[in-house]
Fold this sequence. Notes:
By secondary structure, the chain is α+β, with helices and mostly antiparallel strands.
Amino acid sequence: PDEITVGELAARMKMTAANIIKKLMGLGVMASISDTIDxxxxxxxxxxxxxxxxxxxxxxxxxxxxxxxEDKNEDLVTRSPIVVVMGHVDHGKTSLLDAIRxxxxxxxxxxxxxxxxxxxxxxxxxxEITFLDTPGxxxxxxxxxxxxxxxxIAILVVAxxxxxxxQTVEAINHAKAAGVSIIVAINKMDKPEANPDxxxxxxxxxxxxxxxxxxxxxxxxxSAATKQGIDTLLEMVQLTADVKELKANPNRMAKGAVIxxxxxxxxxxxxxVLVQNGTLHRGDVVIAGTAVGRVRAMTDExxxxxxxxxxxxxxxxxxxxEVPAAGDDFNAVENEKLARELxxxxxxxxxxxxxxxxxxxxxxxxFSQI
Length: 370
Ligand code: GDP
Ligand code: MG
């Protein structure tokens, strides 16, 4: 059950119903002894009354909605690495992502129309690599703090003719803070002024010591323009991923994050989600931030329709009732009604947060006027 009557709650808490009704009124909830209240409200009342509530009362919507058991070892399989490209503006992030993407398009796929969905998979040998293709620096910065969390490896692009710049340092700090492995792509090697030694020298100042100098940081000289070194770079990513032994459980409900989302005139809310664990199926009920809905259609970066998407797979989905925000978590769930309740709860929390930040701002404004 998702609800409990005031009377039953009182009995479980060994308290009079009047006590509870009074507390509820304090919270702005008008209820009589036979009315039902949701579990979160019940939990709030119980804790406010300093009562050790019985176990069933304490269970939150999230706990009832999400499958949170640990994956068993025998369910885990190797998954592809999730890679993000970081670096200073104009050092060649977009060019490199394009070069990688084109290097991977096989002749059998040549007919496919590639779409921008914010992420794509690349075949390397018998394996695959998932790239987050966050466009533009702004979106990247906004998502980086959370984006780094969904990634395993960061390719740090440094232009060989420019060296380490402020956003390079920012990227290094973000990657380090998130515990993401860093591979350095020394780009623009085709330029006559390219000076890879200088780049490596500068890297050591940020405790990134290249392998060739006795450290553990892989540096690959590349050119997004001539495609020189791209294959080696991809091999190094694969190698790093192998060492990390990345695993996931395809036999559970999907969970992951929203990479980007928009409102499409014809299709309604469209979101690219990255499945991090589990498998997403067409028809699944998903909740992403305050958006909920049933996956109506699912397509990959080549516009191909998919029935399901396993771990480390980015897919574009339609069917959500509203547009989620980039960086929102998403979960496939069994109970649609509960998912809608959680959306209500999240909306309420968002409003509270907005209200709190509004209050803070006005206070600050007040002081600044004195
Ligand atoms: P981003 O801001 O990091 O995404 O950088 P872009 O990919 O937009 O590249 C910035 C500029 O550098 C563009 O004019 C690219 O054509 C150029 N560029 C990128 N990679 C290379 C390269 O390997 N060699 C040369 N010569 N130019 C490059
Ligand atoms: Mg760019």
